[in-house]
Structure formats: structure tokens, C-alpha cells
Amino acid sequence: MTLFPPDCIPSIPNFVSMSSVIEAIDVCKTFGEQRVSKNISLKVAEGSIYGLLGPNGAGKTTLIRMLSTITQPDSGSILFCGESLKETHAHQMGYMPEERGLYKKMTVAEQLLFFAELRGLSTRDAQAAVKHWLKRLEMMDWARKKVEEISKGMAQKVQFVSCVLHSPKLLILDEPFSGFDPVNADLIKDLILELKAGGTSVIFSTHRMDNVESLCDHLAIIHQGEKVLDGSVSDIRRNHFTGLFEVGFHSEVDWSVNGVVPHSVAHHSDGKVIYRFQTNEGFSAADLLSAAVAKGGLVHYSEHIPSIHEIFVETVSKGGAAIAL
Amino acid sequence: MRNIFVVFKREYLTRVKNKTFIIMTFLAPLLMVGFYAATIYIATETGEDNRTKTVYLTDYNPSLMLSNNPPANYVFLPAPSSEDSAIADVKSGAVFGWLKVEDLDTRAIDSATYYTSETPSLVEMEGLKEWIKGKANKHQFAKMGLRESQIDSAQASCDILTKEVSNSGDVQESSSTLKSGIGFALAFMIYIFIFVYGSMVMRSAMEEKTNRIVEVIVSSVKPFHLMMGKIFGVAAVGLTQFLAWIVLAVGLVMGISAMFLNSGDGMSTQEAVQKGIEARTGMATVGAMGGEGVQVAASGSQGARDLAAEFTEPLSNLPYVEIIAVFLLFFVGGYLLYSSIFAAIGSAVNQESDVQQFMMPVTLPLVFGFVIAQTVALKAPHGAMAKLFSMIPLTSPIVMVVRAPFGVPLSELALSFGLLVLMFVVMVWLSSRIYRIGILSYGKKPTWKDLWKWLR
User: Do the chains contact at B218 and A101, CB–CB below 8 Å?
Assistant: First the structure.
């Protein structure tokens, strides 16, 4: 079963040139006296998944609304596929807000048809796309049911489908996993990856760091209206490496003879004991490895690269200046 | 523009395919007719107080002969000599009341007092006054040496036939009653339509906001297009319903006419209707009143014929093209103006209870226009007040339609409609500014100050 209807295959992105599908340049937005977005610039490469992280009230939704043409920036510019963002570009985008609903009295099929037509599909194409997606997600039995008659999980699927059935070039999701049960959350993840494979670029904001690490190619952290961190996930993690190493044994070992103190000790349920060491100029990673091997019974040795969660908490807590990678 | 149509289609189809809509389209006229019939029945058949009232009577001028032939349901008894006793009997309920007429001069009865334990109704008081006045008049006529039969034969009747002289010099029969009735009926239709369907627009905007669906929609369509699609869609629903009612009404009339025509004697519809009236009035009165009934029936059917004749020619002389054109233009203009305001209100509020603070000032001009139409415009359709309120856009959809059957100069119509269109354009622009911010504003209850902020 293909993801897209036969006559709606999107074009394959040019990974060589890594052109951007959407680019924000110094966008600012003020509501009353509160400056909600302060000179934010970011670039989303075609065919990539871009994560927007930030604490509540950071300005993620404001930025997302500007990218999806719902609101206009007070200053700065936004480019869509190299062109200045216009309202007509909305037909090439799909948008799912954090707070989302459906018309309760409309049937699933009518609802999806309505959204498809709003996004520029002709009635015929809209009907074909709706049929395709209903089959794809095994929702044919619900086509004639009113939204108020289906369960929340089913409604969540309908919500997601409503923003992708016109095969958008760019999909913008604000907290897409919010309110989704684990089964549907995994389904949405898989669909996002399929869409990416088909050439759709995705921007999504989330608080779930596990999703960021498993899905995103790039991410940015927004804090108090400013972008404080930006780059590919792997680069960000590597650049936040602080020289912490882990060595693991089947039982506890005495490090005092080596004159070093572990940074921390963790006893795992499988019986392993994991020590973390902060290497420094006087005690290198190679020294640690030698000492660990000499103890005998070494079962684990790795550098500890901080998770996105740890980086996020550290960055937001510091309120750090913008770091681009 | 395409998006306006997509929204229009959704707003229209979801409503007309709804079972409630279909049922109410057929049921509403029946319910309304039933309601009015029941009201009239209750008012005429059961609304009167038929209790027999035993009343003390003190008449200082026996020549008035008030004790003879008391009004229906009244039994007069002589009052006790003591005023306190009489009042005590009224208080205890021994008698219903005490009528004391102290006037000696029957030319002006202004010293009459009616003591009761319960305040009499307006109808009862007017009835008593008319009865006493009748007695006084009778006495006056008798003093002048006139007999009752002479007085009756001296009563003159009067009927004035109105004929309008048009600008082209044509003279045609007209009827103020008919024109007032038609104008008022059309104004009422506009009034109801604006309220009912304007509220529908407001609720649609509220639904999208409270369901949190509006943010998805405005990522695809401009808030202005969403608002206009909604206004036009609901208008189409209302017009569909009106059309259905007109078709039903015409079908009913034709069906009833066909029933009369099935007698096979080739009568015209008008003759058949008149015959029906005669048959109905004749049978009812002959049955009830015996010998007198024949004469009453004859006069009753004569009255019905006269009534039909009175309206037949004026009906055919009405300026239908102008009336329909004015009705349609002001119907559409009024609806568009008010529904854009309703849409803005619906977008601003978060729940039903927040609506009230905005509805009153918005609907007040409409209600005021309706009051003006009932009073000023019907009394003096070409007077200064009627002209003024038929120019003000917030009241003109109602007032101008009342004036239209009486003939309104084209310049006045053009000016009024022009002002209405201008106000509509301004209001749509203002409402769309509120709408585009209101639909995405959640949290605290909006105030007029917030609306003003959103406008700027």
C-alpha cells in the first residue's frame, strides 16, 4: 500500500543542494507590549524533519503560526521554496495545531473532503485522496460516521489525515503527540517518517525528547522568544559532549588505588555497575581505558553523549545565548 | 474566492441535510399558524370573564334608569344606606362591587365610582363606561324629544374609496389597509430572518472556536473569506427555507382552490372563495339565531363580499415590482449588515454566556426599527420620522420596507440603499478585523475594550 494516491506523488527533493523548503529570517512578533519572537532565523532543508523545542510560553506556537501563514511577522521575512511567503503557499502546507478539533456533526468523509478542498484540491482529487487515506489507515468503516460518534483515538487519526491528504510539501505540527495514546503516537511517528521518505519536509514542536532524537534531523531550541540553539541533532549532541565516560563491570570495583573518583555510580537491574568519569588533562580517556581493563571484568566502555533532554534542560536553565552549529 | 465557495458549501449542506432543518421547514408554518389560531381562540372564546357579578348600584339620577337592562353578567341590587356597610359587603365578597353614580347632570358622567375587591380589567371598565354613556345619551336624546328609532335612522355610515393618481396621470384604486398589512408583513419577515439567521452565523463562528477547529481552517483560508462564506451559506439556508414555505403556501392555496373548483360549475377561484365565505357565515348564524339569523347571515355574507371586493382591485393595483425589489434589496442588505456583526461577536466570545453583553446593543437598533415601523411608519409613511429612520442603515431594512407599498421616490430609495451598502462594507471590514483576532483568542471573557483594541 503506497502512502500517496497514484496521481499525487510529490517530487524527490534535491539532497545534494539541500535547498530550504522554508526559511525564517530575523522574524519578530509583538503582542501588545510583549515581544514574543525576537529576531528568530531558521532554515528547514527540503526532505528533512526539523524539531522545535522550548519550554511553555517560549514562543514556539507564535513562530509556527507565522510559518503557516496564520499570522504575519511584524518584521523580518519568511521564504517558502525561495519565494516570499504568500497565502497561496498555504495550499502546499499541512498544519496541525496543538489545540485541535473537528466538526462534531459532520461525517469523517465529509470533513476530510472539506479540508482537502480548502487546501486547493478539486472535488474529484479530494475524493480520491480521502478514499486513499481512509483505506491506508483502515478507516473505511468510519467514513459515514459523524465525528461525535467515533472514539478519541479515531478522531486523532482523522485530525492527522486532514492535514496530509493533499500531499503537502511542508507539514507543520504543533505538539503532534499531545493527546495521542501510545499506539497512535507510534502510528503518527511512522507516518511522519514515511512522509519524509516521500519528500515531505516536517517541522514539529514537542516536549517529548525521545521523539526528537528518533525523528529529527535538525532542531532548534526556543527560549523566551529567542532561538538559543540550532543545528543537526548529532552535531548538537557531540558539541555538548563534556568528556564524561562510562565504564561498566559485573560488580563493584575499588578506584581509590588509581587515585580517581568516579563522577557517579549506577547499579543496573541486570547486575552491571556503571561508573562515570569526567576526563581532564591529567586523566585522559586512554588512561581510563587502561585502568579499567587492568581491573578485569570490563563489560562496558563508552563516551557519554548527553541526550537532547539533558541538553534542553541545561540550555533552558542557563538561558544561554544563541548557539548555532 | 474559491475558498469562500468551499466554506459556503459546507455551511449550506450541513444545515439543509440536517433532519431538524427538514422537519422544521415543514412543521414551522403549521406551528406558527397553530400558535396564532390558539392565541386568537383563547382571546376570543375563553378570554372573557363570564362570571355573574352581583353589584350594588347607587344612582343619584333615577332618570338614567341604570337599574334597567344591566350589562351582560351583571345583577344590580340596591345599595345599603350606610357607605361602610356597602364597602364591608364588597370586602367580604357578599357582593362583587358597588357602582355609585353621583352625577345629576347626564351631559357629563364624571362622578362615578366603582368599588371592587379585585381591580377590574381594562375591558370591563371600558364596557361599564360605554354602557353608562349609552344610558346617558339615551336620556339626553329623550330630553330633546328624539325617539330611539329616529336616532338609529339618523346614524350616517361612511366609506371612503381611495384612488391614487400616479405620475403618469393614471388613477387606480388603492387600500391603505392592504398596503400597511403587506408592508408590515414584509418588515416582520426581514426582522425575523435577521434575528434567526444572524444568530446562526454567530453560533457557527462560536462552534468553530470552541471546537478548536478554526485554527486549522485559517491556515488554509483567510479569516475574511471564512466569515463571508459563513454569512452567504447561512443566507442560502434561510432563503431555501423561505422558498420552501412559499411553495408550501402556494401549494396549500392551490389545493384549497382546487377543492372548491371540483364542484364542476366552472366558477372562478374568486367566486368560489366568496361562495365559501357565504356558505360558512350563512350556516353559522342561521343555526344560532333563528329568525334574525337570516338577516344577519345575509348581511354577513354581504360584508364578506364587500371585504373581498374592497381588496380585489387594490390588490391588483399594488406596485409589485417596486415592493419586491425594495424587499429583496433591503432584505439582503439588512441581513448582510447584521450577520457580519453577529459573526464578529461569535468570533470574540468563548462561550454562550459571554454573548449577552454584546447582543443587546447590537439588536437594539433592529428592535427600535421594528417599533418605528409599527408606529410612526404605519401612521405617517411619508412623514419626517419615517423618512429619517428609513435612511439610517441600522433601521432602514425594516422601516423602508413598510414605506415601500405607499410609494417611495426613487431618489430616497437609492440614497437609503446606498447608505446601507456603505455601512455594510464598513461593518464587514470592521467585523473581519475583530474576527481574524477573535477566533484565535482564548482565555478571559472579552470586553468592548478588547474589541476596540482588535479593531486598531
Answer: no
A93: chain B residues, CB-CB within 8 Å:
219
Instruction: Tell me the C-alpha to C-alpha distance, in Å, between residue A117 and each of A173, A198, B211, B213, B220.
Output: 20, 22, 20, 16, 10
Which residue from A87, A102, A163 is facing B211, i.e. has the nearest CB? A102
Residues B343 and B449 in one domain: yes
ipTM: 0.77
Structural domains in chain A, sorted by start:
20-233 (3.40.50.300), 242-303 (3.30.70)
- What are B251-298's pLDDT values in tens digits? 777 776 676 555 444 445 455 445 544 444 443 333 333 333 333 444
Three-class secondary structure assignment of B392-407: CCCCHHHHHHHHHHHC
CB contact under 8 A, A99 and B221: no
Question: Which residues in chain B are closer than 8 Å to A31, comparing Cβ atoms?
Answer: none
> Rounded distance, CA B53 to CA B162, Å?
46
Q: Is the dihedral of CA B221, B225, B228, B229 positive or negative?
A: negative
Dihedral sign computed on CA atoms, order A193, A198, A200, A201: positive
Kindly state whether residue B137 falls inside one of the protein's structural domains. Answer: yes
- Selecting from A91, A102, A110 the residue whose C-beta is nearest the C-beta of B213 gives A102
Q: Range of B135's domain?
A: 53-150
- Helix axes B223-261 and B320-348, enclosed angle (nearest 10): 140
Domain ends where: B112, B135, B150? B150
Residue numbers in B near A106 (CB within 8 A): 10, 14
**A174: β partners:** A205
Inspect the interface and report whether the beta carbons of A118 and B440 lie closer than 8 Å. Answer: no
Residue labelled with grid coordinates 479540508: A115
Name the domain count of chain B. 2
Minimal C-alpha gap between B432 and chain A (Å): 14
How confident is the prediction along chain A (325 residues), in pLDDT tens digits per residue? 444 444 433 444 434 446 899 999 999 999 878 888 999 999 999 999 999 998 888 899 999 999 999 888 999 999 999 999 988 899 999 999 888 889 998 999 999 999 999 999 999 999 999 999 999 988 899 999 999 999 888 888 999 999 999 999 999 999 888 878 888 888 889 999 999 999 999 999 987 777 888 889 999 999 888 998 898 888 888 888 778 888 899 988 888 777 777 888 888 888 899 988 888 656 788 888 888 888 888 898 888 888 888 888 888 887 544 444 4
CA distances from B435 to A72, A211, B393, B421, B440 (A): 16, 36, 22, 20, 9
Q: Closest chain B residue to A92 measured between Cα atoms? A: B220
Pairwise CB contact (< 8 Å): B10 & A114: yes
